[in-house]
Design goal:
Layout lengths: L2 H29 L1 H4 L7 H8 L3 H13 L4 E3 L6 E3 L2 H8 L6 H10 L3 H10 L9 H27 L1 H9 L2 E5 L5 H9 L4 E6 L2 H14 L5 E5 L13 E7 L8 H11 E12 L11 H18 L14 H10 L5 E3 L7 E6 L1
Parallel strand pairs: 3-4, 3-6, 4-5, 6-7
Antiparallel strand pairs: 1-2, 7-9, 8-9
Helix pairs in contact: 1-6, 3-4, 6-8, 8-9, 8-10
Amino acid sequence: MNSGEAAFAGRLFAAGIAAAELLTIGLGLRLGLYAHLCERPLTAGELAERAGIGPRYAREWLEQQAAAGIVTVSGEPPEHRFLLPEAHRAALTGDPAPALTSVLPAAGIAPVLPRIAEAYRQDGGLGYHEYGEDFRGAQTELNRAVFEGELAGWIRSALPDVHRRLVRGAGIADVGCGSGWSSIALARAYPRATVTGYDSDGAAVREAIANAAAAGAPDTLAFARADANGPDEAASGRYALVCVLDALHDMARPVEVLRWCRRAVRPGGGVLLMEPKAAEEFSAPAGEVERFLYAVSVLHCLPVGLSERPSAGTGTVIRPSVVTGYAHAAGFQSVAVLSVEHPLHRLYWLR
């Protein structure tokens, strides 16, 4: 084996270690183990008792986490004590835990990999609902943190005129709302506004209604099912703000959806898109964000987009030129990238 072959083999081995360790993190998150390791160092037996898991499993998992440098260890065997250091706590015990960003591809995709491979062979697709509850739940929590923590602030700072209209009670449409957390965040930020979340998946709409009820969302929030062409014509000219948040790149017919969005907007309003922060153009090798987006596209977003035909087949790596092309094809005259900083997302304002 020459030096180049050895280096690449080493890279694959390191990637394998990282993937396996991500799964052990996912296991710890699922079992709620990290929360028990914050207050004081625990033995394996103490963790087992607190978390309700087998003592032998607790010891093996704790030793693995210590070997990986995730938890610290003190004391002498057989009474080793383990602690989650303060610097690691926010990533592993937050609500939602930021660690899910890394765990999501490894833990969520693995169970459906054979079905993804079959979609490739048959030139078919895989519907969003086919990825399973674990994947959908993890992805939901990732976006929920953005919606709850940043969305309203982005609108306030980047779209002050729209913000003022929403404060006074103008209407908002949230197209492709999924499980509803974006709509819930908008309704909470603008309690006088009427917010309608639309999604083509009836199960997602039912989940959104349940989430809104559990969250105590304002009664100005409602949800409705809509097909790929957008909600009903009665919504035309109704909204000061139409949002399509981290959803357009998954849609089989994005131009048709944007055409409805354009019709739905009142004079002086616009359409807010949140899409992945892909590079301006393809280059290889790429940086970490681009590598992440491509991996997610290969394994999830492109199969989802191709599950309906005909399909634009956009995928996760939706470049600014693609967004602009879709917007112009839908009849928008102005497409602007908003001055909002986020490592994974880019915001567009369509007028």
